Amino acid sequence: MSNYQLQIEEIIEKIKEIDAHIVGLQFPEGLKIRATMVAKQIEDETGAIAVISGDPCFGACDVSDVDMKGMVDILVHFGHTPLPLEYEVPVLFLEAQFQLDVTSVINEALILLKDYKKIGLVTTTQHLQFLDEVTEILKNEGKNVVLKEGRGTRKAQVLGCNFSAIEDLSVDAFLYLGSGDFHPLGIKLSTHKPVIIADPYRNEVRTIDQFADRILRIRFAKITRAREAGRFGVIVSSKKGQQRMELAQSLRKMLQKKGKEAYIILLDDVSPELLMPFTDLDAFIITACPRIAIDDANMYKKPLLTPDELLIVLDEKKWEDYRIDEIRY
Ligand code: SF4
Hints:
Blueprint: E1 4-5, H1 8-18, E2 22-26, H2 35-46, E3 49-52, H3 65-68, E4 74-78, E5 91-94, E6 97-98, H4 103-112, E7 118-123, H5 131-140, E8 144-146, E9 173-177, H6 182-191, E10 195-199, E11 204-207, H7 209-226, E12 231-237, H8 245-257, E13 261-267, H9 272-275, E14 283-286, H10 290-295, E15 304-305, H11 307-313
Parallel strand pairs: 2-3, 2-4, 4-5, 7-8, 7-9, 9-10, 12-13, 12-14, 14-15
Antiparallel strand pairs: 1-6, 10-11
Helix pairs in contact: 1-2, 4-5, 7-11
The protein binds iron/sulfur cluster.
């Protein structure tokens, strides 16, 4: 974790400027280990009281502004850039930048990129500062590098489930700088182009193909099982940035038109334990975070489908057009 750079001086300056007495702090799961250290520094240097949000946080869609309303003067949210949402308290978004030499992992990625000329470069918030350097390396190897801003994102930035920075990009392949498989999977399924992952955490280069095949097989099996279902739960999130009530209502209507029963279920965090009491339902549709259905698929005994997957079940969409669900703001 020491490789993350948190701009604490900026927070301290802001707290002094607005004379904040109570400061909310919210960290993504991977940065919570730094929470008490940051709180101590803030309290020592400003005299303000820090309140750390202990709830899980996976994105800027899940800011604890509602919980902290009336409690804090300012909320500092680490690790994500803001979404176009209205927040209930002043929120300072601070990116946590990963400090590392990415040269070797990019040079290694060039081996897998050797057959491609036009490269779409993509990354997540914590690696945006490397884009110029990576572009330079690729250009020096004769590559044509393409980067695009998305809706509410910076150039080349995939933000949570917002893949708009890669939409309609005419490239031969994508180079994804970052960790994890969800984002490269989303790029692969949206574009059907080769996706090479340069992972600076593991210092490892790989393609997403094997993982994508495995996920598609799992999703296909879940969709097939859900075709047998007669009673559905349509999950709506109470998290402001994940709430898609209109979508839930329209999916419910579609299910009813096809002679199925459907019930809307409101949840904050979604887990297998919370769905377990609904023993009379055969399958669930999740309009909350799309990662839950993909990342946690094996934890759910009954099919837990994304909205698009339900459309496939209902023969309103073709399996060939399968792509990752995206919450649009
Ligand atoms: S809803 Fe989208 S932005 Fe929010 S945690 Fe899930 S994937 Fe990330």
